[in-house]
Amino acid sequence: MSAVSPNRPWWQEAVVYEVYPRSFADSDGDGIGDLAGVQSRLPYLSELGVDAIWMTPFYPSPLADGGYDVSDYRDVDPRLGTLAGFDELVATAAEYGIRVIVDLVPNHCSAEHPLFRAALTAPAGSPEREMFFFRDGRGAGGGEPPNNWQSVFHGTAWTRVTEPDGRPGQWYLHLFDAGQPDWNWRNPAVRGYFEEIIRFWLDRRAAGLRVDVAHGLFKDPDLTDLTEVPAAHAPSPYYHRAELRDLYQRWRVILDSYEPGEFPGTRTAVGEVWYDTAETLRLYLDGAGLPQVFNFQLVTARWDAAEMRTAIDAIEGLAGGDRAPWVIGNHDVARPVNRYAAGGAGAPNMSTGLPRVGDPELRAGVRRARAAALLMLALPGSAYIYQGEELGLPEVVELPDEARQDPTFRRSGGTDPGRDGCRVPLPWTSTGSSFGFSTGSRDGEHAAPWLPQPSYWGHYSVADQIGDPGSFLSLYRAALKLRRSHPALGLGPAGRAAPLMRWLDSAPDTLVFTREPGFIFAANLGEAPVPMPPHARVLLASEPVGDGKLAPDTAVWLAS
Ligand code: GLC
After folding, report:
1. For a substitution probing ligand 1, which of 212, 274, 327, 331 has the most ligand atoms within 8 Å of its CB?
2. Domains of the chain listed by start with CATH number
3. What is the pLDDT of residues 282-314, one digit of tens each?
């Protein structure tokens, strides 16, 4: 957050830290991170300087997709804690001035959810089945899926059920894993059910919601076949449907009904919306729907100054980073260090072909990820940091196949390595069997972390980095501290009343912009050193700067 925030909602310029709870900190030695682990690390998060945390799902779940298959939306997975523990986490976080955002998963539930189980035992056409998409199959004996839609996780988006009498029966739709049946959002009962869930968490003082697959809830009512494969994340019979506008307006009314004066203040909802072009985001950003949607411009753009500038302008032209927070990584995409080493191009959530620790190309990726962090944190609006980004953690490309848990790996027959490489439990200490991830113990022993940590993990640990002024962690801490104190950063003093950033003419391969009062950002994405723009003082640099030149893959914050 910036120093000057005249009555603006906190979320417009907040720095939010994404916690993937199973991989953050394990307080009871079972090898799985938990809520008490998060609570124990609040001092770390406070010193890092974040305004809020977003907790990815911690609800009861059979873990068909890392908890994004929810079997009870209003409880805590007993392996991770209890509802009372959640309340305690929220209350303790508040003492540090940290808000807690929870993940809402409205596109689908778990196949173990009681309402889906009830649908399985109810007849075709029953109200129970109308909560989901049950359809007869096509072809002889209904043996073919009802349409040709594909799952995001590979293979058909339909699974056939066995009817209670033992015969093969109808099929149900799942845009993701078979363990994640899609809800039928045209059914008012589904709307009502989720409104209760939203209130449940907001009543427990959650500061907001991150809305999973926010672009996917409504499907074309006829479930028509695709005539061609839509471009990735483009509007389609199942993405970016106009009906979402009305739904999110209703949710906004609920969010705004909470008292803004009391901590955590106005409540936000940030939609996970993957899109083809920034224009597709208009559906969500025009008018009073969801307060925010993520913008993935810095994830999808290549490491190229012209492309980055166009990507940034696309968001500034639509609504800005206050409505569309900036991110360079999350639990679904390969770590920035490896992604930017590979030039940033390609499918962001595949770790195939990425350089790994020990490869010389990774050095450029490390420099680029540091520069990208300074870029993200200098842009107007809000930013999200994914746990471990502040440590410069690399993607663990070399995870053994038998350790991989992501359903994309299994469903693709192993051709898609999946997203486990960015979910490896955090290293807190330089040594030790889990590098400090598991602290408490069960019978004096720690179970192994749920995903194996590589032997080099200790070099990236908090303990190794904390006293080193040249470390990733020190860079993030310094950047977040400056971001809080510098009046030009965050949303700036006047908010949207004034232009928030102005590009300066600069050499090719560079990005240079000013923010008022008195701030200049400069980055060199090219291969040769370039002169720094005129300035009074260097505030922060991603690499040492000495001779008035900006080295390749370096970014600086300057006082003008
Ligand atoms: C979102 C989540 C991802 C999950 C998917 C299905 O993209 O971020 O982790 O697999 O939705 O819920």
Report:
1. 212
2. 114-173 (3.90.400.10), 495-559 (2.60.40.1180)
3. 999 998 899 999 999 999 999 999 999 999 999
